[in-house]
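I am sending you the entry underneath: sequence plus fold tokens. Let me know what the token row says about the fold:
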Amino acid sequence: MSVMDSFRLDGKVALVSGGAGLYGMHIVEALAEAGASVTVASRDMVALDRCAKD
């Protein structure tokens, strides 16, 4: 069993405020890789669009 198997988030929903920022994007990516459905909030709509496309 790998470490990621211990931290699976399948079926969970995560809300990340500031998710389009420098650190937030990494957190969003990690949560999504762990299986969570991620909702991202940000004040910067341009960065938010870029984050959503990534």
Summary: Helices lie at 3-6, 22-33, 45-53. The beta strands are 13-17, 37-41. The chain has a mean pLDDT of 89.
